[in-house]
Amino acid sequence: MLLVKAFHIIFVVSWFAGLFYLPRLFVNHAMATEPAEIARLKLMEGKLYRFVTPIAWLALGFGMWLWLGYGFSGGWLHAKLALVLVLVGYHYYCGILVKQFAAGQNTRSHVFYRWFNEIPVLVLVAVVILVTVKPF
After folding, report:
1. In this predicted structure, what is the pLDDT of residue 72?
2. How far apart are CA 98 and CA 117, in angstroms?
3. pTM to 2 decimals?
4. Does the CA dihedral 75-77-83-88 come out positive or negative?
5. Domain count of the fold of the chain
6. What is the pLDDT of residues 45-55, one digit of tens each?
7. What is the pLDDT of residues 1-42, one digit of tens each?
8. Percentages helix, strand, coil for the chain, rounded to the nearest 5?
9. Residue range of the domain that includes 64
10. Measured between alpha carbons, how far is 60 from 65 in angstroms, rounded to an integer?
11. 49 neighbors 94 (Cβ within 8 angstroms)
């Protein structure tokens, strides 16, 4: 079971790395004016999203395996699962944004994406506190 936990942590860290970097690409894309730069950012965004999506599924799968294997319970777990659902929704919305950027349909400024980039940071802080402290 420790190996399952190790893989869960590895894939969660990898997923977060992608979710931290993808919105930074959106910031750069929203500010880009050169056609070559825009084309490069579109390519990077699409490749990163396609790369990180299976990693997200692996993180979720190993997390479910841990949950079923250990039988965790408690209010902290419900709060963590709610935040995981927020993160899944964030990931899905990033996919929508990748498609909008690819189609040249972005309507938001780089400032929006700078704030948008902070959501996974807040989720990560809350989840780590919930899992380690188990406050309720």
Report:
1. 75
2. 14
3. 0.95
4. negative
5. 1
6. 999 999 999 99
7. 899 999 999 999 999 999 999 999 999 999 999 999 999 999
8. 85, 0, 15
9. 2-133
10. 9
11. yes
